[in-house]
Request: fold
Amino acid sequence: MLNIFLKNLRFTLISCLGFSALIILNGCSSSSHFEGIERPSRAPLYAKRGTYKIGNPYTIKGVTYSPRETFHFEETGLASWYGPGFHEKTTANMEIFDQNQISAAHKTLQLPCLIRVHNLDNGRVLDVRVNDRGPFYDGRILDLSKRAAQLLGVFQKGLARVHIKVLEHESRLLKEMALGKRPSQKKPAPLPVETVDIESIKPLPYVDPFKESVFTSEPLPIQKGGDYIDLPLIKDYREAAKLSAKMEKFGRSSIAQEKVGKDIFYKVQIGPFSNWKEAEKVLKAVKGKGFSKALITATK
Reply:
């Protein structure tokens, strides 16, 4: 009876969770842009072992983290990846980590859960199963498995700016499964995305993800003194993050938060520059890229 129940449970879960980890190509219909990447078969929603875990507050490197269960969560920041040295070791919720499966580590989300990861640097999107804790480096919000990093285009670079969102329905099903409960029969709505056929991954060299600059998930503090180039205010932090990434080719780019009335806006700033002449030179280049309302400001 137990074997029959487990078989029926697994069949029900696969039916309810009948979606694959998808790579989404925004604005393109050709697979040529993803040459060398294969379509993921399915995010590993079913684990042979492991438990449902939230956990107590814990402290790493002097910073205290408070895990909590949430099905309505979004965050923007930096993602890195891990694999060598952790492969086939136990995750925080007692699963076996496989660097060749699609998974990730987060500091506070319930384990396991399913999140949608949007790479803000290249537009790729992947649904990823979170089953571990980390990363414990300033500014990083997510540690991807080697496989997830390859599919999201993070593997070679080592770091990428991402936006993550918990998928409520799928995460609730994962919770029920981890707790040994029979999930509901309601199927998730079809994903409004276009899938792209892509080819097999070729071996890539290992890149140390810790040698890149760090991008924080919160607006960076603006240094006092020096001249800055300010871009127009933006309401959506995700859009500000994408714009900040584009501006890095002109110099150090940061995001400042400003309150206008009751509303919060975000301002991308480039700088500081050592002198006004240098700032004017960069301003000309920025305006040449279509940002005609950019201007130079000075801080004291």
